């Protein structure tokens, strides 16, 4: 059998392709808005890249014509001060004195000598030891609690115990 002429075969192929595309059209319509938006965003990004590239080339070309300022007159920084001038407070403190301050700060964070394990005690453990402590010891513990953990249940219990000692000496 002799094949059909090329134009007839092309026409038949176009007709079949048109029918196939018509059948796919409902599925493609659902994704069409997303496709259109995606392609529009891609086009805008390409345009932005090309504009940026042109601006960079323009900056390079124009930089030879006018030299840029190293640092604007109005820009001042902390480091720009006179290097011979000492800033206030710098170098004033003796290193030995600084160490003493650090040690004193450590002593303030240490638990009171009355109960060295105070920071590890639970509320019931502390309650069990309260009767053996004097008012001064309790005041020391209360001050320590307020400046460190400031746990309301601990400060409340210590304050109540101190008030009870004041009422019933």
Automatic annotation (TrEMBL):
Residues 70-97 have a biased composition (Acidic residues). It comes from the Bacteria. Residues 119-165 form the DUF8129 domain. It holds the Pfam family DUF8129. Transmembrane segments: none annotated. Residues 64-115 are annotated as: Disordered. This is DUF8129 domain-containing protein. It comes from Saccharothrix espanaensis (strain ATCC 51144 / DSM 44229 / JCM 9112 / NBRC 15066 / NRRL 15764). The lineage of its organism: Bacteria, Bacillati, Actinomycetota, Actinomycetes, Pseudonocardiales.
């Amino acid at each position: 059998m002799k094949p059909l002429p090329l134009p007839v075969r092309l026409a038949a192929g176009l007709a079949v392709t048109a029918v196939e595309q018509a059948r796919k059209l409902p599925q493609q319509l659902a994704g069409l808005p997303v496709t259109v938006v995606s392609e529009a965003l891609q086009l805008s990004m390409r345009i932005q890249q090309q504009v940026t590239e042109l601006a960079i080339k323009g900056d390079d070309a124009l930089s030879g014509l006018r030299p840029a300022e190293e640092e604007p007159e109005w820009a001042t920084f902390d480091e720009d001060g006179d290097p011979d001038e000492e800033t206030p407070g710098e170098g004033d403190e003796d290193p030995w004195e600084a160490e003493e301050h650090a040690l004193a700060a450590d002593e303030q964070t240490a638990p009171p000598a009355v109960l060295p394990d105070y920071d590890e005690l639970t509320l019931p453990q502390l309650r069990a030891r309260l009767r053996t402590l004097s008012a001064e010891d309790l005041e020391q513990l209360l001050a320590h609690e307020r400046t460190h953990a400031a746990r309301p249940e601990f400060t409340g219990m210590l304050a109540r115990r101190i008030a009870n000692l004041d009422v019933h000496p």
